[in-house]
Structure of Threonine dehydratase:
Amino acid sequence: MNAKNLTDTAQTIASYIHRTPVLTSRLINEVSGADLYFKCENFQRMGAFKMRGATHAILQLSEEQKSKGVVTHSSGNFAQALSLSAQSLGVKAYIVMPSNAPQVKKDAVKDYGGEIIECPPTHKDREETANRIQTEKGATFLHPYNDHNVILGQGTAALELLEDHPDLTYIFAPVGGGGLIAGTSLAAHFFGKNCTVIGGEPFEVDDAYRALQSGTLEINETTNTSADGLKMPLGDLTFPIIQQYVSEIIRVDEEEIITAMRLIWERMKIIIEPSCAVPLAALLKEKERFQNEKIGIILSGGNVDLSNLPF
């Protein structure tokens, strides 16, 4: 993947997504000791950056593929993103969701036109059900993050951020399956001026941190974190990009995540989900290293369950 791939992607999806605002907070700058620029993907269509990758992936399909629909397995933001993207493009979306997925997320998928197929809550069942839909319907499977077209789509958030603020010295992004930070690191590499990308990851799901240490994909034995959008392990497409272009990953505990989330809610007056607070938590954890730097932070999304806040 190269610079032209990213700029072409940005042009391709521009009319289907929002160019989200970049906000600042004088008080959070004082707390951190740095100049922070928050790329607010919580204001994206359907409330998260995943709209970018889902839209780009569908637009790369042939007319025949589009006519037969798309399928994915997701209980979170990609389920909503693919449903809304498909609806916008006149494509049928089949969404395999675990039976224990929150009702609020199921309702959102239905509102965006996705057809839900429930399955038992195991990764094996999710994959088998998605495979069955592919066979029965002829639908094309789109992976939530381990897909080059999805990665390029997610990278357009950082591309826009760097267009607005080309002199950023760092960009912080959360790490889950790796689609966002892989795309972010590509944007920083091709369009930044010596811009370093750092990931934030919960201790409870730190497979990416361990993978960078070991040089091989790792798994998480448990996923006990409030940052539910970051529970998926890295993919075999996202990992090599992260290895090459991401400087480091800083791990944070649950209290640090909640403190950062609360800081943004209280001081910036915007809604973000716990996963979204992880990069700010990572920065604040080691803020002495980043004094007086100009830093971008990707706020990944705002689809929080208001009946289940961590504070």
About this structure: The CA atoms of residues 77 and 118 lie 16 Å apart. The chain has two domains: 3-49+148-308, 51-141.
